[in-house]
Amino acid sequence: MLLIRCPYCEEERPELEFRNAGEAHIARSANIAGESDDDFEKFFFIRSNPKGIIYERWRHMHGCARFFNAVRDTVTDKFVMTYKAGEPKPAKLPGVAK
Amino acid sequence: MAKAAAKKTTSATSPSVDRRPALAGRAVSATGVKVEVLPPAERISLRAPEASVAALSKALGLTLPKKPKTSASKAGRTALWLGPDEWLVIDEGGNDPLADCATVTALHSAVGISHRNIAISVAGPAAEATVNSGCPQDLSLDAFPVGAASRTILGKAEIVLLRTANDAFHVECWRSFSDYVFTFLSEGARDAAG
């Protein structure tokens, strides 16, 4: 079983307590009704789906119930790090060469 | 909510409106562990921002814990940290924490959930193994000491777990899950004993 660190509970918890909640850092337009169809499609449907590092939202559903962001490697399924919702993308990832 | 329920009971003549707790009085004993449904208690779900915590602590008569996975207990009343701004307050002494919160003017949300939850006690040397039969958390005394509390899962059901002693746990679950949780713990108790 994977252990995922919850930034609110400040410890690693078993993956069964968590739910994935899609890609992170997708900002909703302040004027969503004024969006063109193409822009709305990009916001609503199009996801990056990379091979490698991905930034995702996760929810500690059966714990503190808070949403947070996680950096995960889609190839190895390893969590690089997690950080609280609302915080910017980490500039430097620990243990990732680039 | 509690007040309304009390009024209903006194004015009604039919016994059908009496409170009927789920699984009342059920208990299972196995070698080294006893799983037992606890009597009804008063409970509230409390949400409040940082600025209101001091006022609420004063009204409730105990200090709301601010550290993850901790609880505070005083005079039959226990407050369990569930999230950064969320607590479960259980009163087993017969006092209503909802009424205490009603006097607080600071911003908060207190919802009576006395009838939503039931409590199960798991006690005995094999209690840890019994709860671990369906709960994936590390329940060793180092990671989950006495007084530690957490919302987690047991099998397929969500529970709130509180360690009340080295060899005793208090398991809270939703009423509709109570049959599943109690049966799961009973099976776990037999496995842990064997």
Automatic annotation (TrEMBL), chain A:
One of its GO terms (molecular function) is sarcosine oxidase activity. Pfam families: SoxD. InterPro entries: SoxD, SoxD_sf. One of its GO terms (biological process) is tetrahydrofolate metabolic process. This is Sarcosine oxidase subunit delta. It comes from Mesorhizobium huakuii. The lineage of its organism: Bacteria, Pseudomonadati, Pseudomonadota, Alphaproteobacteria, Hyphomicrobiales.
